[in-house]
Write a structure and sequence with these properties.
It is a single chain. This protein has three helices and no strands. It is mainly alpha-helical and 78 residues long. The relative contact order is 0.10. The mean pLDDT is 89.
Length: 78
């Protein structure tokens, strides 16, 4: 999709993908993105998938699991 935190690059990548889907006439069509991830600009790697508040995330997961268990016990299905 593009570099994390780079909305313009992500938008360009999606636009390129949609254009390819609209214009491809044979299977296995590929295109090369003109976007280049800046060499040496690895700050995004440190932030990618980082968890700012692991306790809050764990609590939210527990609430979700409890809600799912409650719904299952009440006979609700998806």
């Amino acid at each position: 999709m593009g570099k994390p935190d780079d909305a313009a690059m992500q938008s360009d990548t999606l636009e390129l993908a949609f254009t390819m889907l609209e214009t491809s006439v044979v299977p296995r069509t590929t295109v090369q993105s003109p976007n280049i991830w800046s060499p040496g600009d690895d700050g995004w790697r440190e932030r990618f998938m980082s968890i700012d508040d692991p306790e809050a995330l764990a609590a939210a997961g527990e609430r979700r699991r409890q809600r799912q268990a409650d719904e299952k016990a009440a006979g609700h299905t998806r």
